[in-house]
Amino acid sequence: MAVLFTNHVLHAMSRRRNVARLAALAVCLLVGGAANAPGQERDGAALLHMGADASATMLDTGFHQLYELNFQGARAEFLSYQRRQPGDPMGMAAEAASYLYEEFNAKGVLTSEFFLDDAKLLGGMDGSPAANRNEAFLRTNRRAREMAEQSLRSSPRDPRALLVLTLTDGMESDYAALIEKRQLATLSLIRRAEREGASVLAVDPSAQDVYVALGAGNYIVGCLPGYKRAMLWFGGVHGDRARGIAQMQIAAENGRYLRPYAKILLALAFEREQQPDRARPLLADLAGEFPDNPIFARELALLDARSPARR
């Protein structure tokens, strides 16, 4: 679920400040798994493997709870995972995602009312940055990044650590643009996340949840007016709506933890593209998979109300 530009240009031309806010929806949550400790005897290794599988299940369960909007339940699973796998930064990144997703849910960011309205999309969340400040997210996201950086010092091509860096930078860019409305921080973080995402895929092509960030960034930048895309081009940022949709489709079909997130972003993108017939099955799948989340069913009903003849 990206753009880099300079703060001096953004301040010099007030209309350009909106570029960062639009690009900030290149939303990136996270993916996870479990790590096994080496050096155990056969029986101990088998028990450890069983423990690792149980840890992975905690992440699966936590993300399911997250998409059901059970934020306390999700965090309980993520904290349990952290206790079982204290050296894995993914547990901390998952906890950070729960705080950010909860904030976005409270502000209605992942809804057609927000996503399809350029004024809201460009203006960020209602309220002042101070009023919206989320210390829990900032603290856990920072800690996840620190843990990933520590892992990379001993293993520079560690795909797990590279993935966590990609996701923490992506989440912080969302926070900076939509909550704090700091354009320079947003744009630099998004470009850095793009580079890190490419590094993850070079090491581990199966980490297809990364395509959420890459696809959302490509799509949203591609939606900008031509003159704004030209400005971003000089900052090293490119966008392509068709490519972005294709990348989000990969994550929606083959992702693990970010598959539902990719689906809602893709559905909203299809609505922006005036393709309700492509958005509808995605929303229907989400509403069926997560019945305790009223947003997915509500978005499906709103879509049908906007295009009843094509149901």
Task: Describe the structure concisely.
By secondary structure, the protein is mainly α.
Task: Explain what the structure shows.
This protein has 311 residues and is mainly α. The protein has a single domain (7-26, 108-310), classed as Serine Threonine Protein Phosphatase 5, Tetratricopeptide repeat, CATH 1.25.40. 73% of the residues lie in helices and 0% in strands. The chain has 17 helices and no strands. Helix 3 (42-67) runs parallel beside helix 5 and helix 14 packs antiparallel against helix 15 (259-272). It is globular, with a radius of gyration of 19 Å. The protein starts with 6 loop residues before the first helix and ends in a 5-residue tail after the last helix. Residues 1-51 have low confidence and may be disordered.
Total number of helices: 17
Largest sheet: none
Order of helices and strands: HHHHHHHHHHHHHHHHH
Q: Which residues sit in consecutive blocks of at least 5 with pLDDT less than 50?
A: 1-51
**What percent of residues are in strands?**
under 5%
At CATH level 2, the architecture is Alpha Horseshoe
Structural class label: mainly alpha
Number of strands: 0
Q: Give the CATH H-level superfamily.
A: Tetratricopeptide repeat domain
Query: What is the CA-atom radius of gyration, in angstroms?
Result: 19 Å
Q: What's the average pLDDT?
A: 77
CATH topology name:
Serine Threonine Protein Phosphatase 5, Tetratricopeptide repeat
Shape: globular
Could you estimate the helical fraction of the residues in percent? Answer: over 70%
Q: Estimate nothing, just give the exact number of structural domains.
A: 1
- N- to C-terminal separation? 28 Å
> What is the level 1 CATH name?
Mainly Alpha
